[in-house]
Amino acid sequence: MVSVNAVYQTVLQIINKEQRGYITPQEFNNIASQVQSEIFESYFPDGNQLNRQNQNNTQNDTEFFNIFKNQNEKLYPFIKDLDFTYDITSPQATWTYNPVGLNFGIYEAEIYWMGDILSKYDSSLVGNTDPQASSSGGEYITQLVTRSDFNKITRSKLTAPTQNFPIAYASTRTVTPLETVGLTISPQPSTVTVNCIVSPITPNWSFQIGSRNQYIFSAGNSVDFQLSNTESSNIIIRVLKYCGIIINDPTIIDIASQETAEVQANEKS
Hints:
Elements: H1 4-16, H2 25-55, H3 67-73, E1 79-87, E2 94-96, E3 100-101, E4 107-108, E5 111-121, E6 138-144, H4 147-155, E7 167-175, E8 178-186, E9 191-198, E10 207-209, E11 215-217, H5 232-246, H6 250-268
Parallel strand pairs: 6-7
Antiparallel strand pairs: 1-2, 1-9, 2-8, 3-4, 5-6, 5-9, 7-8, 10-11
């Protein structure tokens, strides 16, 4: 992770060097959230591009210089196996993931992308009505289909899903104050685990007001950037670009934009 305090102090030192202005903690937090989202979301199109080079054997493949592997490793902290909870009170009796609430309205492990869905069957199936269900059970990858296909498949005796070949469809569920994912699965499993990519937690530079009305950093209530340490310079450059917009300094915007472009070109070359 990248220290949110280190980034903020570095940014302040740079923009204050020539007395070009000041960025408040609230302004910095808003910028930090935007910058982290931009970098995180860039991993996916960049990864696709680098994977094509990897498949064509057109890139370095030494231990520490495989750029596709290095790019992929940046996502490792966001890949998690999440346990879904059965909600019999919902309209379709769905399995739902409930994000864990942290301080100041921030939630941990909000789902960004779903991967494999693993449905486990055992002798204590929840509401199971599958005539082919066995007490031996097992854990099986569940095929994700559309709601329309789900209805067609489950209503046909020839294509009805079984424990060995379960199916599911996803829907949006509201878990106040967030929207999350609900899964309707057939046949009904006993437990559900989903391999997901989760969104990074929003960075936050928290503070207290000192005796002279100054901002004093509060480490215990702050949240660092969730990105790899290798992104430290990239984060600072991008934050500076947005700071230039706030303080209306085109020089900072131009320099930061050029630096960002050079970083991106170097990573993809």
